[in-house]
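Everyone, carefully examine this protein record:
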Amino acid sequence: MPPSDAVWRQAETLPDRPTAADLDRLRATDPSLTAAEWHHVVDVTLLRRRGRAKFGGDAAVLDLTAAGLEQASRPAVAARRGRLLSESGATSVVDLGCGVGIDAIAAARAGMAVTAVEQDPATARAAAHNLAALAPTGRFEVVCGDATSFPVPPSAIAFVDPGRRAGFRADGSPRRTLAPEQWHPPWSWLQGLAVGHPATVAKVAPGIDRDLPGPDVAVEWVSVAGDLVEATLWFPGVRGARARRTATLLTPGSDPWSVAAERCLSGAGEPAATVAVGAWLLEPDPAVIRAGLVGDLAGRWRAGVLSPGIAYLTGSGPEPTGWGRVSRVQEVLPARPRALRAELRRLGVRPVEIRTRGLGLDPQRLRRELGPAGEGRPAGLVVTRIAGRGAALLVTDPAVPGQ
């Protein structure tokens, strides 16, 4: 018999770091439950709390595992991908290695028939529970089996999100691996799948080498509210008119499964020209940087970089709102700590935030070298290279308190 609702409610009273005494008191409320059942209730309860940031209120009904929570797609990203596949004419998806089922839920909600394949029995049970809870009217089945040997029908989309955990950290949390051949399944298997079944979509780590997928695969780097969360590979059978490289910036809606706004930038990755400091400074969204599209964004806004290889754009035309963090440049100052300290005092400015890029500086150490903040007007400080030489930009920025 599964744990009762009363047991789940009692578990919600646990602190985030329960002691042995907390667990003993909780278990005493229903001695009929086995040790394994109690561990499951406690683990899922604590994981649901952690999952609120990603899943919102839906976290309260999800069955989760530690690795599944870490690797699960953001609901808004999964929902967008499911919508795009459905709009392309896809009617069925085979989710090979579905984890706790978030992408399978999104595909089912988008109206496609879903076969979710998961090798780990406990994770497969979690996926089945989650699909029933969040896609109750969808067409789906969960298969406990090996994704690498599961036959994908020719008419279906193959979706793969390789496991990127290898071993555990000292605190017991899964350790990520950046080596594609250490993914589960490995990159070589994914390549072979796409050769035999070109209608393949894969979600991979955003740090993937831009050139690894090859010229026939469209790669889309996706950020949510400025947080770079994944790269999606669209293989030839589903690539359509997508460009080789795209940066997609999503603004989440109030519902974790919705997107309030999205911006897409595609290009060839042309380098940006180096220009003099303009009226504004843009720190591009990390999806733009990772996609290698800083130069393409510069061309769109008649801007350039401060120095080759430094991902700060500057210009004096309209501000590129929505493409990253925009600051207004007030002064160009020396980067040497003693001279910079003197200039800040002369201007009556106290830096409330220090950002550095391209000089290998530690912002906290630089703050100590600049001395006490004082009582001057607040401003931001960006220490970087201008035309290859160190410099500091005094900026005002809506993201900096007090400005």
